[in-house]
Write a structure and sequence with these properties.
Length: 273
C-alpha cells in the first residue's frame, strides 16, 4: 500500500469510530493544493541539471500550512501527500494554530557540493515563493535539510519579496532567531516515547538494549539522550551499513568516527551487520 493510501485507510477507520461528519471527511481526503515544480540548477561543471520538487498544502483550517522540506533521492508525490496529511493531524493533536503541509526535492544532497546545494535551495524557494510566507505556509527542515538550508531559503524569499521575514521558516540558525533545542527535538521526542513504553512493559532502562536505524541528526541525538538515561546502545546503522557491539557503544565516539570516515561502519571492535 502506498503511504497516502495508508493515510486514507487510517482516516476512514478513525472517521467511523468518532462518527466524523461526511462533509469533513470528504474535505480531509484531498490536499487543498499540490505544487510540482522543476528546478534548473547550474552545477559546478557549468551544466544545468533540473531537479523535481514538491510542496503539498494539505489543509489550513487551523492556520497557515506548516511542515518540513526533505531532500532525498526517494522523494515522490505520494509520500509528500501522506506526510502533509499527517502534519495536519499532528498540529491539531497538540493544539497549535497551524495546518499541515510538506515539501521535498528529489535529490541526494550528499552528492552535491555546498555551492550546488545552496543554488538548489534557493531555486526551490524561488519556484514556490508565491505560495509560502509567515501567514500562508511555514516550511522547516526535514530529512536531508538543516539550519543552513533554511537560512538560504529565508534569505532568498526576502530578496524576492523585498521584506524581512524571520517568521517565514523554522529550524533556522540560532543567530537568525532559531529555537534552542530544535536539532535535539525529534530525538528527544523518541526518547519520551521509549520511556513510556518501558514503563508500560515494566522494564528498567539499565536492563534494556537499543538498536538505532539511521545515525544522522535524529538517530544521533536519540542515541546520546537515551544513553545518558541509562539505555545500552548496542547497534547503530547509517546509509552505508550497520554495526553491533553487545557490551555497549558510546554514541559520541561513534559520531566522531563517522565524521572522520563518512560512516559508522568499521568503528573499532564492532561487528558489521
Amino acid at each position: 500500500m502506498s503511504p497516502f493510501q495508508d493515510a486514507l485507510t487510517q482516516l476512514n477507520k478513525t472517521a467511523k469510530i468518532i462518527k466524523l461528519d461526511e462533509n469533513i471527511l470528504k474535505t480531509l481526503k484531498r490536499p487543498q493544493r499540490i505544487l510540482e515544480v522543476n528546478i534548473p540548477v547550474k552545477m559546478d561543471t557549468g551544466k544545468i541539471k533540473v531537479f523535481k520538487g514538491f510542496r503539498i498544502q494539505y489543509n489550513n483550517a487551523r492556520g497557515p500550512y506548516k511542515g518540513g522540506i526533505r531532500f532525498h533521492p526517494n522523494v515522490n508525490l505520494d509520500e509528500v501527500k501522506a506526510l502533509a496529511f499527517w502534519m495536519t493531524l499532528k498540529c491539531a493533536v497538540v493544539n497549535i494554530p497551524f495546518g499541515g503541509g510538506k515539501g521535498g526535492v528529489v535529490v541526494n544532497p550528499k552528492e552535491l557540493s555546498k555551492e550546488e546545494l545552496e543554488r538548489l535551495s534557493r531555486g526551490y524557494t524561488n519556484a514556490i515563493n508565491e505560495w509560502i510566507g509567515p501567514k500562508k505556509d511555514i516550511p522547516a527542515p526535514d530529512v536531508g535539510t538543516n539550519a543552513q538550508i533554511m537560512a538560504w531559503m529565508r534569505n532568498e524569499y526576502e530578496k524576492l519579496t523585498n521584506t524581512k521575514a524571520p517568521a517565514l521558516i523554522t529550524g533556522k540558525p540560532i543567530d537568525q532567531g532559531g529555537s534552542r533545542g530544535r536539532e535535539q527535538a525529534t530525538g528527544q521526542g523518541g526518547l519520551f516515547v521509549l520511556e513510556e513504553v518501558v514503563k508500560k512493559l515494566g522494564v528498567m532502562p539499565q536492563k534494556s538494549t537499543v538498536a538505532i536505524q539511521g545515525y544522522g541528526n535524529v538517530g544521533y541525538n536519540f542515541a546520546c539522550l537515551s544513553h545518558k538515561t541509562g539505555f545500552k546502545i548496542i547497534a547503530v546503522s547509517d546509509s552505508k551499513g550497520g554495526i553491533v557491539f553487545e557490551t555497549g557503544l558510546d554514541p559520541e565516539e561513534v559520531m566522531e568516527y563517522k565524521k572522520k570516515t563518512g560512516s559508522v561502519v568499521g568503528f573499532p571492535k564492532t561487528k558489521i551487520i
